[in-house]
Amino acid sequence: MPAPPLAPTKFIEVLQQVWWRLDAALDADLIYWSAALGAVEALMNGTTAIIDHHESPNMIEGSLSLISKACSDVGVRVNTCYGVTDRWDNNGQLHSKISPLSKMTNAAQRGLAECERFIAGGGTGMIGVHAAFTCCDETLNAAADMAKRLNVGVHIHVAEGEDDAHAATRLAKLATDDWLLVHGVHLNSSLLGRLVHNPRSNMNNHVGYGAPTSKSNTILLGTDGIGADMLEESRLAYARLREFDIAETPDTVSQWLKNGYQIFPEAENDTVTWNYDQVQSPWHVAFTPGTRVTDVVIDDRAVIRDGLPTRVDLHEIRAKAQEQSVRLFERLN
Predict the structure, then answer these.
(1) Please, are residues 295 and 302 in contact by the beta-carbon 8 Å criterion?
(2) 3-class DSSP assignment, residue 156
(3) Please, how many CA atoms are within 13 Å of residue 282, restricted to the half-sphere of its CB?
(4) Residue 325: is it exposed, middle or buried by C-beta count within 10 angstroms (0-12/13-18/19+)?
(5) Can you give the CATH number for the domain in which 261 is found?
(6) CA-closest candidate to residue 132, choices 105, 171, 95, 162
(7) Does the residue 1 lie in any domain?
(8) SS3 217
(9) I want to staple 201 with a disulfide (CB 3.0 to 4.6 A). Which of 62, 84, 224, 261 is the partner?
(10) Would you say residue 94 lies in a domain?
(11) CA distance 208 to 183
């Protein structure tokens, strides 16, 4: 994508000038091929299950099915949701002032409907919420109620930046143990749910260190979509953790990785073969670069063989994704 009109100097400007512009530009082809590329990159790096939080305000209906199909075509599992938000008005325009509104917008209603449609139709997902600071109380309550009714959790960004620092106060009466709380960098009080630590994304967006070991929640390791190599993410997570606490070891980060199986227990039966025979040792993983996947088997089907996907043409996916990136550039320029 082209550079933003102005260089962001704080997190809210990064959201407004980069990520939210990108969200608004997405259409069906951009969604499918970017999902396919992300899925195949994840699989080639040994990730057999993806949890995705998606937003495309000008392409809401059917967006989760496109993501699910892309992942299914590649052969990777996915748990996805639409990130409901009130930051878009009923004309599809971004509100000039981001603050909790008093009434749910049409865009938020459509986002909730997309989550319900996808899950009720057999899709694996959660109820997505962008973040408390871009949602009114009516929207947050509706998302929590829908999650209970469908027996799934809520997947929400929580206190990623200072603009959302009061999220815990607004969510305290809604959150349950099956919620997925993403980031939590500025989480100033306890909140029920699993907490996902995203070290690379936090550093890239200049929001600070989440200090996950200081939280009482079960910690999972994530990427917030900025990469697909979970071993590389774990190395970065350990380096940042060690900087925070000299007494910490790679075993802590290894446990964060394993906690992901709480969301996808079936993934524990997948077989991933690596080019390095000490990959089961957290200490070896933390200090050994170049560890690559050779083969992956999911549900007794080989989806990676000799480092390459078996169900899709990698070159086609890359070529199609490149075509879409050119379209994206033109839309945003």
Answers:
(1) yes
(2) strand
(3) 16
(4) middle
(5) 3.20.20.140
(6) 171
(7) no
(8) coil
(9) 224
(10) yes
(11) 10
Total count of residues recorded for the chain: 333
Report the sign of the C-alpha dihedral through residues 207, 209, 214, 218, in that order. Answer: positive
What's 4's DSSP letter?
Answer: P
Instruction: Tell me the backbone φ, ψ of residue 197, rounded to 5 degrees.
Output: -95, 130
- The identity of residue 29, as a single letter, is D
Report how far apart, in Å, the C-alpha atoms of 254 and of each of 248, 249, 325 are.
Answer: 12, 9, 34
Using alpha carbons, select from 317, 320, 307 the residue that is nearest to residue 43.
307
Q: Tell me the pLDDT of the chain averaged across its residues.
A: 94
Position 275 in a domain: yes
pLDDT band at 99 (very low <50, low <70, confident <90, very high): low
74 assigned to some structural domain: yes
DSSP 225-243: TS-S-HHHHHHHHHHHHHH
To the question of pTM greater than 0.85 for the whole model, the response is: yes
Decide if 221 contacts 253 (C-beta within 8 A): yes
Structural domain including 126 reads 11-332
Give the dihedral sign, CA 151/36/258/162. Answer: negative
**Ordered DSSP codes for 88-153:** B-TTS-B-SS-S--SS--HHHHHHHHHHHHHHHTT--B-EEEEEGGGS-HHHHHHHHHHHHHHT--
pLDDT tens digits for range 218-277: 999 999 999 899 999 999 999 999 999 999 999 999 999 999 999 999 999 999 999 999
Give dist(CA 117, CA 114) in Å, integer.
5
